[in-house]
Amino acid sequence: MKLNYQRQGQGPSVILIHGLFGSLDNLNTLAKTLVAHYDVISVDVRNHGRSPRTEQMDYPQMAQDIVTLIEQLKLSQAWLIGHSMGGKIAMMTAGLAPHLVTGLVIADMAPVAYPKPRHTEVFAGLTAVMETNPTTRKQADAVLAQHITMPEVRQFLLKSFIPHSEAQTDCWRFNVQALQDNYAHIMAWPGIDPAFNKPVLFIKGGESDYLLPEYQPQVLRQFPKATAKVIPNTGHWLHAEKPELFNRLVMDFLN
User: Per the database record, which ranges form the AB hydrolase-1 domain (predicted)?
Assistant: First the structure.
C-alpha cells in the first residue's frame, strides 16, 4: 500500500506516524521543529486521512506500509517517531526491517497488548455523527458530546470531520467501520523477535496509563537499549499538551 505523505526539510530522514483517529498533521508542531535539521516525512496510516482504505489492518501490515514508503523514497535508513498506535507501528517496523530504522521515539505507548477496550464511547460518538449527517462542526460536536465528555477528545476527533455538504463518502477522514472491525488488532501486540538493538526513547505522559512501570520487562526484552522520559502533568496527548518540552526531548535524543 502506498501511503499519503508530506515531506519537508533536508538532512537525516525522520518519519512521523500518528495515532488512532489521527492524520499526518497531528505531529505538525514537532515537524516544524525538526524541519530545520531533518528530512521530515509525515504520513497518513492506512484507513486514515488521505491514505487508501482497506478492510485489513494489523501491525505487520501497517509496518509493511512504512517499509514500502521507505523503499519508495529510496531512503537508506530513517528515524521513526510514533504516537500511540503510531508508536506500535514504528516498533513493529523496527522488528520487521531493523536495517531500515535508525532508531525510535515512542510517545505514550508500550509494546504490550491492552486487554480492555478504551474507545467504546468514541466509536459510539463517531457512529452517531455518521447517522445524523451534521452540516457544521458545531453540530457534530453537539452529537459527539452526547457520548464523549472530554472536550479535548472531541476537538481532536473534529479535526477529521468533513461537513456533510463536502463529504463524498462519509463525514470522517478515517474509516470508522474498518477501525471498529480491526479494533482487537489495534489493541493487540504480536511482539517482535529478535529484539531491536538500536536506540529507543519512550516518552510517557505523567498522568497517562498507557506506559506503566510493570511493562518494563516487556519493553526491555524487545528493546534492550530503551530509555524513558516522563513529562509531568500530561495525559496521552503529551505532544499537544506540552509541545515545547516534548519537542526538546525528541531533538536531544535525535542529536
Answer: 12-243
Domain boundary among 181, 200, 216: 181
CATH code, 101: 3.40.50.1820
Does residue 236 carry a catalytic annotation? Answer: yes
> Domain end: 128, 162, 181, which one?
181
- Render pLDDT for 148-195 as a digit per residue (tens, 0 to 9): 999 999 999 999 999 866 555 678 999 999 999 999 999 999 999 999
Q: Please tell me which residue in 23, 84, 160, 208 is annotated as part of the active site.
A: 84
CA dist 17 and 7 (Å) reads: 13
Among 18, 119, 236, 239, the one annotated catalytic: 236
83 touches 19 (CB < 8 A): yes
Cβ atoms 158, 125 nearer than 8 A: no
223: domain range?
5-113+188-254
Indicate the SS3 state at residue 226: strand
Rounded Cα gap, residues 95 and 89, in angstroms: 10
